[in-house]
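OP here, attaching both records as promised.
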Amino acid sequence: MGMKKPVIGFAGMTHLGLNSAAAAAARGFEVVGYHPGQRPKIVEPGLDEALRKHAKRLHFASSLEALSRCDLVYIASDVPTDDAGKSDLAPIRELIAGVKGVLGKNALLVVLCQVPPGFTRSLEMAAYYQVETLVFGRALDRALSPERFIVGCADPSKPLPRNLKTFLAAFQCPILPMRYESAELAKIAINCCLVSSISVANTLAELCEGIGADWSEIVPALKLDKRIGQHAYLAPGLGIAGGNLERDLTTVLNLSKQHGSDAAVVDAWLANSRHRRDWAARMVRKLQLDKATLAIWGLAYKENTHSTKNSPSLATIAQLGGATLRLHDPVVRISKEKVFETPIEAVRGADALMILTPWPEYRKINCAAVAKAMRGRIVLDPYAVLNPAKAKAAGLQIHTLGHA
């Protein structure tokens, strides 16, 4: 007779909690998901299907008492950040206090939401910290198949408790126990490495535009270098956005000031991000489209999410006061009178088109249909969403990051 699986609880059914709960249920665990009031609607590929498929193992509740039967409870609410990248940890502390009040005698508490170094130890209670590395648009896949688990412990030399080890082992990936502060900083280290790659790609892709090189020709050479690798973030974009990366950079800057270390490179990354974010607005001025009718496809900060946190598209729109705007996004609505139901409706009569979020459905749109609907021929396509050959054949003038 096999050992009974632990019941897993997740407190906070926001993006992190809901995707993590769905992944736990998919791995065969009974799951309790707590959220005060109505669960928010989360846009994430495959999530709704997973929730339906594993509904028998998923139990949602708006009362903290529902977590009392759990053997392992994750604090999994998204951490709100302001425009300066500062986290508001008060709701997380309040949630922890509430969960602590209903935990069973032998139940474990694990902080899953991202917190700065020093947070978990400051709780002064028996708890663990687990690094989350979910990505908007790929969150469920990453929750189901993580590369590794990074677990912060009060004493990493001691074995992990049985229920926690049983749960993590079900995902069949390496488990890396370490002290609280190391685990909390590990998440920030991961994101700093990603930002570094993004900054290199953006800096050199812009140089390509000036000297006649093509960044897309260079990328394969970099990925074949073992020191860089096949999965490196080398696609140029409109800076970093979404809130999480900015938050981690802000944390590094603040810790650096406190401890007297050098973090000038982080300031440079942020400056580079702001510069690349404004690429489309600069192109509008360069092409003398300031007073034109402009169609914009994409308002979310990236594809496959409803989030507009630090969206390059919204930052661009804020700089286009003299233009007439015609907007489209599959899920985001910011202004009823300006947002059109279909991409082709949005582009009708436009002097130029800007594709500022690379939604998959935009890649399927016929270039000839775009050209027919538009009044002008200019397309600012930073992510190369449209097929270059088909766009050229339709008479469109494409401007893309990393291409002269």
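Record two, same layout:
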Amino acid sequence: MIDLNTKLQSKSVSQFIRKYSSKSFVRVFRRNTGAIIGLIMIVVLVGMVAGAPLLTPYHEPLRLVANPFIPPTLAHPMGTDDLGRDIFSEVLYGASTSMTVGFFAAVTSVLIGMLVGAIAGYYGKIVDDALMRITELFQVIPNLLLALVAVAIIGPTIWNLIWVIGVTAWPSTARLVRAEFLTLRERTFVEAARGLGASNLRIMFGEILPNAMGPVIVNGSFGMAFAIILEAGLSFLGLGDPNIASLGRLLIEAQAYLRIAWWISFFPGLFIALIVLSLNLIGDGLNEALNPRLRER
């Protein structure tokens, strides 16, 4: 049996590890120049999107406000499109759509992946085999193809896009969590929790999962970038929500005017590239800060 002293000792050790890891995380993350640049970029971009009502007088981005094909000017910093809509407003509100879809889709995929990976890694055997076969089935089908079919069936609303992207992107998280659970489920602190009478749910989500969150957080940042690209791709193919501004919709509408109005495609593409680049830089920094092997370099 595990006595009370062992229990208290394990708690104090756990608190010490958390405190040390927090300080070490900040120190390692700060020395990664790329991650700091990515963090600054995403803060600026989120600030621009959040401040869209103050930065642009056109609060209805799909409204016609000027003559078509006006190049970038002080009145229209990114010009106007073929219908006379202000591209600066469309880009800011379209980026808001992309970030919203990316964030909630990433959260959805991480939650599904954590649940599947935790159950598979903890119970193993038949349960593990069954869940991994389902995971492999989702991985075999290309994400874009699966998302195209699903959105075409249920309709191209923003919440349907979030659900579809989240459901198609969870296998990578599931495999990461499963691998961590297979490594951690036989550790001493898990045996101590079992000895204290903890339930399986308590051990899975209260003891093992917190110790497996490093790779999940890193994968979540990359997953958000992937979700933004997938949403832009679906909108580019005409399966985005037609009632809201979208960067992907801007790009498909700009195809016919690449030679006469370069700004219509340039600025939406630039915003997508900057958002995805900043998230990937942050993901690299998180990976270095949360990975003990990389942290020791």
